[in-house]
Amino acid sequence: MSSQTQTASTPPASPSIGWGNRVRGAGRGLARVGGLLLAVLAIMALFAVLSDGRFLVVGNLLGMLRYMSTVAILGFGLCIVLVVGEIDLSFANLYGLSGILVAVAWIVWGWPVYLAILLAFGVAVLVGCFNAFFTAVVKIPSFIATLGSSTLLFGFTLLISRSQSFNPTYPPPGTAVDPGQLAFFQGLSNRALPFGLPMQVLWMAAAALVFGFLLARSLFGFRLKAIGGNQRAAELARLPVTRYKFLAFVLMALAACLAALLDFAFIGSIQPTAGQQLLFPSFAAVIIGGASLAGGRGTITGTLSGALLLAVIANGLALLAAGSFVQQMFLGTVTIAAVVLDQVTQRLK
Amino acid sequence: MTAASDPATSADQPVGLLPADRCGVEVRDLSKRYGDTVALDRLSVSARPGEVLGVAGPNGAGKTTMIKILADEVAADSGEVLIDGEPWTPSIRARGIAVVHQEPQLFPNLTVAENLLVGRERRRVLIHGPNGDERALMEDLGIARFADHRLGSVPLAVQQRTEIARALADEPRILLFDEPNSALTEEESDDLFRRIHRLAESGHVVILVSHRLSELVAHTDRVAIVVDGRCTTVLDGAHLTEDRIARELVVGARGEGRSGASPAETDGGVLVALEGWAHGRGRFGGVELDVREREVVAVVGVEGSGARELVRSVAGFEGATGRLTVAGETGRAAARRTAYVSADRQMSLFPNLTVAENIVARLDREIASRAGVLRRGRAVALGQDARDRFGIKTGTVTAPIGSLSGGNQQKVAIAAAIVQRPAALVLEEPTRGVDVGSKAEIYGLLRRYADDGNAVLMFCTEDAEVFEAADRVHVVSRGSVSPAIRVGDHADVESLAGELARLEEHGARRPQPPIDGSAP
Asked: Can you tell me the mean pLDDT for B18-26?
């Protein structure tokens, strides 16, 4: 793949930026993601053979896309936070809190589901601001700040849920759920689209467009990269460092809330620990997609490819009845291998 | 390539080599390419024990690459290094080459003594401090009393000497100093040069890379001029003069001479005014200062005098009280009409962005629609425009910023501030670590920016810089600011330097002025 970029990058040295350079720039970005997608295709082929073709059944592939959408949406938010040079460990527990908040407000308190959803997003914005406040204003390392807020959120989730799981189809005794609202809520993601396309995949595509635009095509994204690349220089250049960090953490929180509600609507139930098992895969997807924990680097297409790679592996291994232990080992190996590969290709350049 | 294979004409004979004498260090035909860029093109140079060899060259000429090869940080593509006639590779540590870097490459979280020991520990249990030799070394370099201080907390000069101690502890044959005094005061550098001479006298081969011509003349025996990756000539004896070095360095380039305007041209309105300006933590006080349209004003003063802080405070990056007016605005809005460029390029550039992106990083409406959609074509075009206007040497503006030489990176840093079109450009040491050719170009672009009806305020550490680039200069001494001196009133830099030194003395004897700004 690198040899392709090499051949594409040999126009005569023109003094101005011509098409050659644009192609070269685009080629570099594509080469990254392209390499990843190649890996995905190779692994898919392998699974297709090993599973006697069961892997390639349309239903299975669509299920895989649905599975990846949660990690991808979380990954988009995380990518933004990593690009600005921070880290967020609290989104997994915010995921749980968001689902529980909707369930408790709707089922236990008897709010209309629409208000319950608004409440969850409102709380997500507050959590994002909370993380950003301690990171950008109090200037605690975001690792510590979000480690703390993560635990805080989990405690709060357990408190308001009284450690209960909720299923709106079977509300607890003494409570009732309006059937119309239930249909609306489930329709958010548990709905049949043409060709059996899962609704969640559409949400993922929409989120990818929004986050991708923000990161790659907007002034906001450009400055996020600058801030993540050299925060001191950004301050001295009077870039709005604090404001952008607030925005980054809030976007992350909104992504976590959205992912939680879509999963809740699809699966039909929510428990307080929901989301905790998503922390590592989300990081893995973003890192495999080329983001740097040091800041200033990361793309939405990369995150999407990373999430796809993980989904393919998880799905294929499940089909082969490999068991969750093997899946875990695979996930760890793939994450390290992807980052090592990236480092090697960077060094070769 | 061996010596026998080049019996060619004298024109082909590498000029950096000494005749038959094989004692010392000899660098032969060293070549190194980075992609399309030729960093070293068969560089040959040699140095004898007992002498100090100076190395001078414009930024991007290959000095840094040479040092990196000798320090085993990068590998050469071809060529060899001989020590006393024997081929040497960086892996041979004994009788090796030690490099003292421009910025000490040490461990700020460890103590001075630990810095000397780390990597050379003799035991796995670190209960023994430095041994006798190491103590003597620290004693000799005058850092023994800092032995137990955290390195990050001691003055830069002490850090530098710690780096020298660390280099010497390996008993190297060759010592390479890369701009070792760029951040030292005059006194500290004098001391450093005394030590460098002593090292040479004790039989070491000493190589000194420097931008400061006066130092090269004063402290080296020979100076190798490196241009475009080759050693073009070696100056010694009567040829070793500042003038001659300067001329050799800018062969092919145009010298600009003094770029300052005459006093008559600088009677525009006041653009920047400080009244009763005092530092939040008392580093300066009672400052009355103004910068007019089309004027470049310099502020000088030793480290700790408050001069640096004064300049920074005008841009709003240092807390201060009093009245600041910039282009009619006061308070926070005034600072916002300025653009600031730090002395440290690591504080003004974004390493993960391209050249063009660095140039436009401060802009908003110029590179994005009202809705915040980035116009990338615009950004690249602005970058190209700035590259041409400011003479930034880069193949394409979409190259990573790290691929540029130091001088060109500095031009990018200043360009990024200028394209923002501030009423006042505020700079700290605009040409720190920049070669002579780029210096003149940077002065030229500051002058042109002022000529467009703007103000430039800069903190300088070199008198020559003040003479070349400024219209007026203030001396800050112990927190009080002298009246302005017209640079144009002085015929040469020596006369200006004399006056500045007098003012510094005078200020030093004066008592600290009252902070409330009632001083005249």
From this structure: 64
| pLDDT class of B60 with cuts at 50, 70, 90 | low
Kindly identify which residue of chain A lies nearest to residue B393, measuring between CA atoms: A15
Contact B180, B100 (CB under 8 A): yes
* Tens of pLDDT, residues A182-207: 999 999 988 878 888 889 999 999 99
The size of the A-B interface in CB pairs under 8 A is 79
Q: Is B290 on the interface with A (CB under 8 A)?
A: no
Contact A219 B348 (CB under 8 A): no
Q: Give the span between the Cα atoms of B513 and B371, in whole angstroms.
A: 51
- Residue carrying structure tokens 């008392």: B282
| Nearest-by-CA chain B residue for A84 | B352
Is A229–B336 a contact, with Cβ atoms under 8 angstroms apart? no
Q: Residue B342 is nearest to which of A236, A239, A296, comparing CB atoms?
A: A236
The structure tokens 């910025």 sit at B103
Highest mean pLDDT among B116-120, B136-140, B192-196, B415-419: B415-419
Tokens of residue A305, six digits: 């490819």
User: Cβ–Cβ of B353/A229 closer than 8 Å?
Assistant: yes
Q: At residue A303, what are phi and psi to the nearest 5 degrees?
A: -60, -40
Question: Does pTM surpass 0.90?
Answer: no
Residue carrying the six token digits 């060759």? B174
Q: Going by CATH, does the domain composed of A54-168+176-348 fall within 3.30.2000?
A: no
Q: Which residues of A touch B317 (CB under 8 A)?
A: 236
* Chain A environment of B353 (Cβ under 8 Å): 225-226, 229, 296
Q: Is B380–A17 a contact, with Cβ atoms under 8 angstroms apart? A: yes
Whole-angstrom CA distances from B458 to A264, B41, B415, B426 are: 60, 37, 15, 6
Q: Identify the three-state secondary structure at position B231.
A: strand
d(Cα B214, Cα B53) in Å, to the nearest integer?
A: 14
Residue A38, both tokens: 């190649």
Residue of B nearest to A296 (CA): B352
Task: Give the Cα separation of A340 and A344 in Å (integer).
Answer: 6
CB contact at 8 A, B496 and B467: yes
- Residue B389: in which H helix or E strand, if any? helix B376-390
Instruction: Name every chain A residue with its beta carbon within 8 A of the beta carbon of B416.
Output: 237
Other CB atoms within a 10 A radius of the CB of residue B266 amount to 20
Coil vs helix vs strand at B272: strand
CB B361 within 8 A of CB B351: no
Of A13, A223, A234, the CB nearest to B395: A13
Q: CB A20: neighbour CB atoms within 10 A?
A: 17
Q: Is B380 on the interface with A (CB under 8 A)?
A: yes
Q: What are the boundaries of each domain within chain A?
A: 54-168+176-348
Exposed e or buried b for every residue in A103-115, given b needs 16+ CB within 10 A? bbbbbbeebebee
Interface contact B372-A220, CB threshold 8 A: yes
DSSP per-residue string spanning A77-100: HHHHHHHTT---S-HHHHHHHHHH
Summarised one tens digit per residue, pLDDT across range B232-279 is 888 888 888 877 887 777 654 433 445 444 444 446 788 999 999 999
Q: At what angle do helices A199-212 and A300-319 cross, to 10 degrees?
A: 150
| φ and ψ at residue B207, rounded to 5 degrees | -120, 130
List B458's β-bridge partners, or say none.
Answer: B298, B427
User: Which 3 state secondary structure label does DSSP give B458?
Assistant: strand
| Contact between chains at B361 and A226 (C-beta distance less than 8 A) | yes
- Given CB atoms, is B313 within the 8 Å cutoff of chain A? no
Task: Determine the residue type at B322.
Answer: G
C-beta neighbour count of A177 within 10 angstroms? 17
Q: Name the closest residue on chain A to residue B420, using Cα atoms.
A: A237
ipTM exceeding 0.90, yes/no: no
| A65/B303 Cα distance (integer angstroms) | 62
